[in-house]
Amino acid sequence: MSRLKNAETCKEVLTLLENLANGWRQTHKKKNLYVHNGTSSQLLEQYKVKGLLHLVWTVDILKENSYYIQILNVWDILPLSEMPNLASQLDDLFENYTVDKMNRCKHKCLNGSLVVPMRWPVNSSSCLEADPVSSLSEPFASLSLRDDPQSSSTTRG
After folding, report:
1. Which among 72, 68, 71 has a CA at the least distance from the CA of 127?
2. What are the φ and ψ backbone dihedral angles of 57, each rounded to 5 degrees?
3. How far apart, in whole angstroms, are the C-alpha atoms of residue 37 and residue 40?
4. pLDDT, tens digit, for every residue of 96-107?
5. Higher-confidence residue: 7 or 24?
6. Most buried of the four, 30, 57, 89, 122, by CB within 10 Å?
7. Which residues pair with 49 in a beta bridge?
C-alpha cells in the first residue's frame, strides 16, 4: 500500500480488501485478465483496481491450534505487465503444496452468495472435497425415515 501514491486508489484497494474479507467475490467474467498455465493458475485471483493495477491474491491454508483454516493471502498490487514474473515466483511456491493442501485452498463454502472460510481438524486425513460421498453422507447419517424420531430401533407389534 505504501507504493500507491493516489489516495483514491488506496481507498479503492482498502474497500476491495474489506469486501473480500466479508466474502464477496467477482464474477468469473471480470477476473483472470492474465492467463497463466502454471501451478499458481489454480489458486491465483486478480481483481482490477483503478487504472491499470491489479490486486493479486490467493486463498491459503494456515494451521492454527488443532485446525487448518482458509485465509486470504494478498501478494501484490501491480500492473498486468508484471503478472508473469509474480506468477512464476508463485509457481515455485505452490509446487511444494500437496494435492490435499491445493484442494483445501480451492474448496469454497458458500453462505448465500458470499464465500466463507472453511476449517478442518488437523487430524483429518483429507479435504472434504476429496471424498464428496463421505462429506455428503455425514449430514444424512443423522436423518431418520421412521415415524418415531425419538426411537433408535423399530419395533412393530
Report:
1. 68
2. -150, 165
3. 8
4. 999 999 999 999
5. 24
6. 57
7. 53
Length of the chain: 157
Residue 39, SS3? helix
pTM over 0.90: no
Structure-block grid coordinates of residue 114: 458470499
H-only helix segments in 37-131:
83-94, 99-106
Q: Tens of pLDDT along 90-138?
A: 999 999 999 999 999 999 999 999 999 999 999 876 665 444 444 444 4
Q: If you search the block for the grid coordinates 430401533, which residue do you land on?
A: 153
How would you class 104 by CB atoms within 10 Å of its CB: exposed for 0-12, middle for 13-18, buried for 19 or more?
Answer: buried
The grid coordinates listed for 95 are: 509446487
Residue entry with cell 492474465: 34
Separation of CA 56 from chain center: 13
**Residue 117 grid cell:** 472460510
Asked whether the beta carbons of 60 and 44 are under 8 A apart, the reply is: no
Helix residue ranges, H only, 7-120: 7-21, 83-94, 99-106
Residue in this structure with the C-alpha cell 485452498, named with its chain if needed = 105
